Amino acid sequence: MASVELRGVRKAYGKLTVADGIDLKIEHGELVCLLGPSGCGKTTTLRLIAGFIVPDAGEIIVGDRRLSSGGQALPPEKRNMSMIFQSYALWPHMTVADNVAYGLKLRRLPKADIARKVASMLAVAKLEKLADRFPGELSGGQQQRVALARALAVEPETLLLDEPLSNLDTNLREEMRFEIRRLHDEFRYTTVYVTHDQLEAMTTADRIVVMNAGRIEQIGSPEDIFLRPLTEFTARFIGGTNILRGAASGHTIHCGRLAIQWSQGQTDGQAQAAISIRPHEIELHPTPSPGENTFPGRVLRHTYIGAQRDYLIELDPETHIRVVTRLDQHYAPGDTVGVHLPIQHCRALAR
Amino acid sequence: MIGAWRRLDVSIALFALVALVLAILVVLPIGWLAWYSVTDNSGHLTTANFVRLVADPAMRKPFIITFQIAIGAALLACAVAVPLAWLVSRTNLPARGAIRALVTASFVTPPFLGAVAWELLAAPNSGILNQWARKILNLDDYDYIFDIYTVQGVIFCIACYTFPYVFTVLANALENIPADLDDASHILGGGAWATLRRVTLPLVLPSILAGTLVAFLQALTIFGTPAILALPAGFHTLTTKIWSLFQVPPQPNLAAAAALPMLLITLGVLQFQRWLLGRRSYVVVGGKNSPPRRIQLGALKIPALLLCFLIMLGPIFLPYAALIKSAITNNLSDPLSLSTLSWRHLNFILWEFSGTRDAMVNTLILGVASATAVTFIALVVGYLAHRQLVPGHRFLPALAMAPIAVPGIVMGVGLFLVYTRPPFLLYGTLGILLVAFVTLEMPAGFQQVQAAMRGLHVELEEASRIFGATRMQALMQITAPLLRTTIIATWSIVFIGVIRELSATILLTTSNTKVISVVIYDLNESGELGAIAVLGLFLLVITFAIVLLVNRLPILGGRPVR
């Protein structure tokens, strides 16, 4: 096992740059999620690490070996990695046991060792009874577990996962999220996990790398990313938020008629700035009374969403915000309410 | 993956080699063809050849007749195939599987064999149908009802074996229309007839047209049928005319000039067809295809089935019966009974006629060699192109598909011109036939491989790489086994294509390099119809055995595949 480091990795197809100078260090035994919308370059980054794609510039270092550098790459089979593919890529002409044993056979292990390892891997993945089945005869969740078992059987230095849960239904996906985390805690391989699902990233990752348009937006723990987003993209992509824009002066922005104070984060020093406040952090009061960061607002829309209520509120004709409240706070469309934006939750964004 | 090429030297070398081979196969003959068409015997530039095409009535007339035949056959094929395809793919017609099998049988029956069989059936004097007609209608001895040696006869015979082209394209299109589209029409108040007329037919109209165009091209470029039916009647089509220009004294320049328009028409029609089918993409919209609901025929079931079998009289039932009868009776006019049974023809073919065994051996050698070569090249091209392994990979499929625009007889002329001169003196050897078959069958083989490659997820191979397999190991352990059925199917399709080829073969064969199709043609000239029947049935048995084998292929050991 070893750390994985990307230094200034760049890849373009013609005019389309898919990885635009990626710098990232993944520590030994760490599970890192690459998170972003489709087309953000996360899968490209994973495949660069795997050696399927040769970088145009930059280098990829695993442990103390430099595996890729501008224009060159050690082929995937020499990297001692393993991977779980989005399609699972189980070989339909081999049984479950053959699929799992494949990597071990290529490593020319003695037959007895292979049998023992396959058996123990199948047990870990709860697949013992399916050993002689063909992939076509398994359900989606079972196929997913075979892919996991096959990937772990070779005891890789590095484990790569490419949207491994995107083909499963919701319940199974939740179960497999915890399963992947459990297996990671058990084996502690250096793991890179690509997903576009923030919940998946939150529940599995030690650190999350938010990517956008071929670049890294932010790296941090799940809490960091959610509570302390640095950019508008991160704030919007993780959890959803209200963005308020206006002229900046000190720790205040002037958004239309409203002067909103903030205490978290940092602007980028420009005259215009944006702050973020999440819908559930905003407080509503029945009467619009003056106070710190408190403004009168009018309820435009009320939606009941089970455990909470979701309001759309007009602060001024150009400024609408979403607020999520407890069930006992009930207002009808047209009501005038007091809207409190707690200063400690108002976060200035750099971009 | 441009950056990856440094570690793929082998692929590069292979790419260069395959590209070169494909270029030689296609470009060389067409290049010589074009050159010959604008030169005279001594190699000086001239337009005389083309002037003669237009001015000489002996050249002009075949053009006109060929177009009459091609248009007539295409329309007839279309008229037959449209109801048949609709009945089989959209209604609850009984015995749909059997009808499909019969269409497949028509598809693989060599057209020249069908023409010979129709000679047996509908020659003015000896034809079986005319004999029956005389008996039933009390006609005089030399009266007849059917005459196959006419333009109409040629049209009929060609349509018998080209209608499957229309059928296949149309049946596929009909099956790909999501049932929702029909349902949407029904829910808005459209009955079965209104839906057929306003939704289903307009949707598949481009496919009908595209299939008909293929039939048109087949009819335009076919050699066997007119050679057998038109020559005795004293008229030429373009293909037979080109062939006659190679008889003594040979006029290769004029032949080249006559072949060129055929090439250009084919190119144009194929381009038009592609445009048609490209616009058709709206047929397959909609992700979830509900299984098509079949229209209930009700009381019309039996009449519809009878219609299908009536249609099948033409390509299958009557000709096959005639072939079998003439194979086992002494004379064609003998009634079929135990006393007239005879092994004379079988005996003649197997023991007396020296040409048979050589032809069988040659056919076998050429079939196996061509099928193997095409499969190999198609696999390499398909793999390099699909995995985008080498720069310029885009051009390889185009090169492999190029011969589809070259009619057999045109290819025959081109190859004749290339390989009768140094440095490639292949004429008179099996080599020139091998080159011809590999070139002509490459598109069919490549299409098979390409379709399979598309269905094979790249990740299957990548998974093997990441677990430690080299590219070669991944190919041998993962890709090759998964392509096994494709390989067998491709091989078989090429083999069948080779044993039925006549148009190019007839120009390239010599007395030492006869193949079965040519022997059948020769025997026809000498009137040995019984012997042809034996040989033809032999050819059909091999063909059907292969078709059955391919259809029964257990997909990966018969186990369901994800």
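Chain B has a mean pLDDT of 85.
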